[in-house]
Amino acid sequence: RIGIETIHWFGLDLPEVIGLRKQLIKDPSQYRLIAKSIFDFSWMDEIASNSGGKFHFSAQGLLPYLPAMEVKRLVLALYDRFPCCELVFDCMSPFMLWLHNMHPAMRSQHITLHWAIKNNREMETWQEGIQLTGHWDYWEDDEPRIQEFKWMKLIPGGKDGNKILRYKLGG
Fold it and tell me: Comparing C-alpha atoms, which of 75, 54, 63, 154 is closest to residue 114?
């Protein structure tokens, strides 16, 4: 994905999504697709046995769709299986989660977001050794697609509404 031969990427998704990806994306040697549910933790063994060293996990557009207890179960499984790994994910505040769930498009498709994070350091309380190491606010980004929504940071609960957090898990 980034042209560095020593880095191995794994794409994890449900089998039907991986099937579509395989039709659209060339599968280079350092990028492997794994067709499993995120809750079938056997993928962790597959990754651990096919790579060595440091691990960086990125959960893009995933965690808000999961129930809070499942997010915690996943994070603690990563903590146990990959000592000293890094996890980066996008998340939203409870207010923004509520606002998303009230949006007509979400309601008409019967899509519900479940997990939000009120305090950036919330996950540090889940297990000793989990540490917040970085955070980015969507509204501070110069990305043109975000510009039209910057007004949302002015409403109560909107400033910390959408963000990306980076945690170190263990070690």
Answer: 63
| CA distances for 7 relative to 55, 69, 150, 169, angstroms | 10, 31, 35, 20
The candidate with the shortest Cα–Cα distance to 41, out of 83, 79, 86, is 79
Task: Give per-residue pLDDT as tens, 6-44.
Answer: 677 788 899 999 899 888 877 666 678 889 999 999 999
pLDDT at residue 1 in the model: 52
Helix (H, G, I), strand (E, B), or coil: what is residue 97?
Answer: helix
**CB contact at 8 A, 43 and 64:** no
d(CA 169, CA 167) in angstroms, rounded, equals: 6
Q: Which residues contact 100 (CB under 8 A, 6 or more apart)?
A: 64, 92, 106, 113
